[in-house]
Amino acid sequence: MAGALDRFLLTLAALAAWLLFAPLAAADAGTDPESALQQIIEEIQANRFDQALHHTDRLIDAFPNFRLAHLIRGDLLMARVRPIDSIGGVQGVSSARLNDLRAEALARLRARSQRPQADQLPRDLLGLAPEQRHAVLVDTARSRLYVFRNEHGAPRLVADYYVSQGKAGAEKRREGDKRTPLGVYFVTSSIPPNQLPEFYGSGAFPINYPNEWDRRLGRDGYGIWLHGSPPDTYARPPLASDGCVVLANQDLDALSGFVEPGQTPVVIGQHTEWLSPDAWRRERSAVVQVIEAWRQDWESRDTTRLLRHYASDFRSGTLDLAAWREEHARINATKQWASVSLAQLSIFRSPGRDDVLVVSFLQDYRSNDLNTTMKMRQYWHNRDGRWQIVYEGPTEALD
Description:
Blueprint: H1 2-8, H2 12-21, H3 33-45, H4 49-62, H5 67-78, H6 95-113, E1 121-122, E2 125-127, E3 134-139, E4 144-151, E5 154-162, E6 165-166, E7 183-186, E8 204-206, H7 212-216, E9 225-227, E10 239-241, E11 245-246, H8 249-256, E12 265-269, E13 274-275, H9 277-299, H10 303-307, E14 310-316, E15 319-320, H11 321-333, E16 338-350, E17 356-367, E18 371-383, E19 386-394
Parallel strand pairs: 3-12, 6-10, 9-11, 14-19
Antiparallel strand pairs: 1-13, 2-16, 3-4, 4-5, 7-12, 8-9, 14-15, 16-17, 17-18, 18-19
Helix pairs in contact: 1-2, 2-3, 3-4, 3-6, 4-5
């Protein structure tokens, strides 16, 4: 399969052969660019070049700035006088531009062949709070952004779009490295197009990079957004931005119907892991048990029991673990009883090797002399098979 995919980058004939071994769902050219591209390649495969040209013209009518479609159209016109032996056989196109367009074609069609099964759930979205009506997940290896609807806390896939990422790929570490960050983030605001240069297309959704875990690891930089494309460009190559996640303007407009600043999570990973519903429920249940044990130990007013859930390098604002212990010991000493309840719980696993959970909730604390309600966020890190809290604080301090 890998060899066939590599050959796709060189010739349309190889792409046709690849489709024989990796059949896609039935095409509907009126639905999305990937479906239209699939139909065009199938026509080329069957030597129906006139039909392929017709469908390519329809695709260009729908998306006039779709450069890949224009390139294929040029090849189809050339096919009338000589055989097609490569994508971009027409003269006057730079090798760099050809490589970019070939990479885009591969990413788009591969996404069609590797769509998750209808009942599969992403491992990184382990629970959505009721107010989080949708969640966004970016798979950088597939150049794909997935949108999920919240169905009683479980994510259900409702849409997906081709995206571009940083020129140097993923896993941002420092300012200016032209990489897209990996982790769990939240949309912080919405910027309309009339407040942006044309380069950002139909708008932007900033996210809260760097988050608390990024700062813990010394990752820096700023200005990571989900945004649109310049008005003269339908889509950019898979590796094209300075670190942002970039969509076609039509796709960003569609995405805006799902995104709510202050609520919508954006989980960015390199390879999305899909689970069966049973496996997803087991994983979620195991994490919920860890959080529930922490809640019960806090409610017990036993500081030693509570502190077993916190890592040695724990921080909360200016407090380290020792100061945190003193604070809780002082508070617990004044309590005759305490009740702790958690609502609006959301759980996201940070993709990649960090093995971090981002947990948010509405915390209701009641005791004989103190009642407080606060939106909180915790970062849990897996240390030798044991989850421990490395950060805890109000969400207002983070977003």
